[in-house]
Structure formats: structure tokens, C-alpha cells
Design goal:
This protein has two helices and four strands; from the N terminus they run E-H-E-E-H-E. It is of the alpha+beta class. Strands 2-3-1-4 form a four-stranded antiparallel beta sheet. The radius of gyration is 14 Å and the shape is globular.
Amino acid sequence: MHATIRRYDAVDQARTAELVKKVQDELLPRLNSLPGFEHYSLIDSGNGVVSSIGFFDTSAQADEATRVAAIWVRDEKLEQALPNAPEITSGEVVVNETRAKSS
């Protein structure tokens, strides 16, 4: 499994709610339809910092998700809300555990 973390800083805080809704309604369905999609989370750290983490089966699939996200930002004209390119960290997931849900 491969993960990609994108950290955006200097996010227009007046547009955070809009950004979250657009991610949920528009970006997430695109990512979810990509081959190898496993999981995606968006994190609002406050103070104009928003991060996302996406999990895919392979490095190539994670790279494709990064490309799709960049196109989506441009298509949605979010360059002012997200004025700086994200800091991207990507790599193989070497330890992962999910709590089993009790019945």
C-alpha cells in the first residue's frame, strides 16, 4: 500500500468550509473511482493549514491521485483559496493497523 500526504498552508480560512464541501462532494468521488483507491482523509489543522492523506495500492496509483487532485484544484478555480503548492510526502506504508470494530 502507498500513501500520499499533501499539506497546504496559507489556506484562505474564510473559504475552508467551501473547500471541505467541494472535497467531499467533488474530489472524493473522483479519487474513489480511481483504481487502487483505499482511503482518503482531509484534516483541518486550523490557522490556514489543511492536509490530506490518501491510500492507494501502488505508487503509480497514488501519483495519479496527485495529478487528479492538482487538475481538480485548477478546474475548480481554487488557486486563491489554496495559494501555495502543497508539500507532498509519498511512500510505501510499512506499518498500518485499523482497529477491528466490535460487534
